[in-house]
Amino acid sequence: MDLVIGIDIGGTKTKIGLVDAHGECHEKTFFRTRDYPNLEAYLDMVKSTADELIQKIGQPVNLLGCGIGAPNASSKNGTIENASNLVWKGRVPLVEKLAQRMNMPMRIMNDASAAALGEMLFGTAKNMTDFIVITLGTGFGAGIVANGQLIDGYDGFAGELGHVDMTMGDGRLTGLGVRGGLEAYVSATGLKRTIMYMQSKYMVESRFRSIAYNDLHGEEITRAAEEGDEIALMAFDYTARIMAQALANFTAFTQPEAFILMGGLTNSGKWIMDPLEKYFNAFLLEVYRGKVKLLHSGMQGKTAAICGAAALIWENHKNKAS
What we know:
five-stranded mixed beta sheet, globular, alpha/beta, 2 domains, Nucleotidyltransferase, domain 5, 322 residues
C-alpha cells in the first residue's frame, strides 16, 4: 500500500497520520507539542509515533515521503522561523533534523498553504484554479492559489494574512507583535478576547462573567449563543464583521472563486457563518458581488490538517504521473 506520512505541527497538538492517494487517513494520532520543549526529543517522538502507526496498518507499506504543515514554515529553506505559538524559537532546521531520523522525501510548508494543496487534491477545490484557504485555529492562516498555482513567495512565507493590520496600528497585538493584526480578532483565541472585551463594554448578564479567560473554550461560546447569551451573540457578530472586511479586501488582490474555511472557529456554524455572509457581501466591491463563495473544507474535519500536509508529497507524485 502506498502511503504518505502527514504531520501537522500546531502550538497545542502535533497530529500525525498515514494518508493514501485519495486523501483517506488510515491511521492517525496526536501528542502535545508543548510537552517537548527540547527539539531533539520532539523529533524522536515524531519518529516513534510514525513507526507505531505504520505497525498498525497490518500489511506492507510503501512510504512515499513525509509532508509537514507548520506555522511560519519556509518551503524553500525547510525551516520553521520565529513561530510565535511554538516552544522552539528562532530558526529551526526541522526538515534537516527530521531527515536524519526518517530517510525519505520530505517537504514542509506553512500549514494553511499545505491545506490549500490538500483542498486541490482531496477537497472542495478539486476543480478550482483561484481560491484562498483560511485556517481559523489558534491563529489565522491563509493559503492562496491563483491561476492554478500556489502562491508560495520568494522565501516560502507568502500568505501571512493573519498579521495584516486591520486597525491602523491601534488594536490588539498578534503573536508576532503586529498591533491590530487580523488573527488577534479572527481566530479561536481572538473570539475569547472579544468575549472579554464585550463584557467590559456592555453590562448585560452573561454566563461568561463567572468564567476565567483560561477556562473559556470555543464550544462553550457556541452553546451560549444557542441559548441566546447576548455577549456571545455580539462577540460572533463582531468577529464576523472584521473577518468579512478582511476577506473583501483579499478578494481585490486575486479575485478568488471561493474562500474555503477550516479550523475550530468554523465549528460554530451559523453563529459565525450567517453574519459573515451578510457582512461579506456588503463589503465586497460591486464588481465581485455574487461571484465569491464562502465554503467549508472538503477534507474530513479531524484529519484535514494531516491530509493537507500529506498533499505536499502526493502533489509531486501526481505531477510526475501526469
